[in-house]
Specification:
Layout lengths: L3 H42 L5 H26 L5 H23 L6 H24 L1
Helix pairs in contact: 1-2, 1-3, 3-4
Length: 135
């Protein structure tokens, strides 16, 4: 028979892990938002600016990306493998990129977004399937 103490301990241990996962996802989503602006917003906002100015602006934005990315990776590395962390990052990147491309960069949505998403979901399945089987 399972003791009440064990159940309470299990609940709080898993709750802590879930909260850490939410923190990692939130930090990575915010980091990706900065990354997308650092990488692509100059195409819309500074099309005729000298490259050195674009690089300085992009680096300035990227600083905030790294201020969020580094803690997210350190937290995530405590309970995810490196490949799992990377695939999760790619899922978040695509999830942030599609609205960015459509709403900010004003690019039309295409079927390629769906196909790319399905490929990423396949990667998620393969990288996390060992954990799914042991759950």
């Amino acid at each position: 028979m399972v003791s009440v103490g064990f159940l309470i301990s299990f609940y709080f241990r898993e709750r802590r892990r879930l909260m850490s996962l939410f923190k990692v996802v939130f930090l990575l989503a915010c980091s990706n938002t900065f990354m997308l602006f650092a990488w692509y917003s100059h195409l819309r906002n500074m099309p005729n600016a000298p490259v050195w100015q674009v690089v300085l602006v992009s680096w300035s934005i990227a600083l905030f990306e790294y201020m969020l990315m580094v803690p997210a990776n350190r937290i995530g590395n405590q309970f995810l493998t490196l490949p799992q962390l990377k695939i999760m990052q790619e899922v978040i990147t695509l999830s942030v990129f599609v609205p960015f491309a459509i709403f900010y960069m004003r690019k039309p949505i295409t079927w390629n977004y769906l196909w790319a998403s399905l490929c990423i979901l396949g990667a998620v399945f393969f990288i996390f399937r060992d954990k799914m089987g042991s759950a």
